[in-house]
Amino acid sequence: MAGRSKRMDALTKKAAGLGVVQLSAAVQALKSMEDQLPKGIKRCGFDQTVEIAIRLGVDPRQADQIVRGSIVLPHGIGKSQRVLVFAQGENVKVAQGAGADFVGGKELADKIKDGWLDFDVAIATPDMMGVVGPLGRVLGPRGLMPSPRAGTVTQDVATAVKEYKAGKVEFRVDSGSNVHCVVGKMSFDAALLQENIESLLSYIRSLKPSASKGVYVRGVVVSATMMPSILVAV
Q1: How far apart are alpha carbons 136 and 119 in whole angstroms?
Q2: 71: part of which helix (H) or strand (E)?
Q3: Is the N or the C terminus of the chain less surrounded, counting Cβ atoms within 10 Å?
Q4: Which residues of 59-81 are buried (b: 16+ CB within 10 A; e: fewer)?
Q5: Mean pLDDT split into 10-residue runs, the chain, 234 residues
Q6: Residue 80: which of 193, 165, 158, 172 has the closest Cα?
């Protein structure tokens, strides 16, 4: 634990010393900071997930200022998501053919009620919402509840499955007016990470609610699983 503490202490000092930098510099710094650690401090031993946090000028308590959506990032997120589909009839074969990991109906709902949650995305056809609806209490807090707005309640099962398998990500502003989103892995080339982040930022800017007044994007930071945040100029 002491080694980890020294590592984070050194990295946090480096990040603080950077101040606020342009996105390209922030990504480069995130990828290279660990290489500059003093000898004797252990490096992270796995491919960390890179995330972005965006502070928005909205009041999430107001229904007309909720910012949420989903996007297929240009270069994916570096992992294959486990996709579950609630479907029946011909849509079962369609979902399986598109690459869904789990396809079914009531039997899957019963497994989830019993505590099974070994999937990353849940998709449902509209005719299955009678089965899916009661799962809201379990799936909602975990961000797994199928939603028409997110595109996870749809008749076009094949497209939805393929998009999530390709790295589609969902986001929703939290109670602190922040949006958090995965944008890739540390092993990604810096240019690819930057393109993913720029695509996400551009999309979020396009979602500015008309009820939001003043500065909309108020702050941006990039970080990784075991790395401190780096402030990005907005």
Answers
A1: 16
A2: strand 68-72
A3: N
A4: ebeeeebebebbbebebbbbeeb
A5: 69 92 96 87 90 97 93 89 96 97 97 95 96 95 88 94 89 94 95 97 96 95 95 94
A6: 165
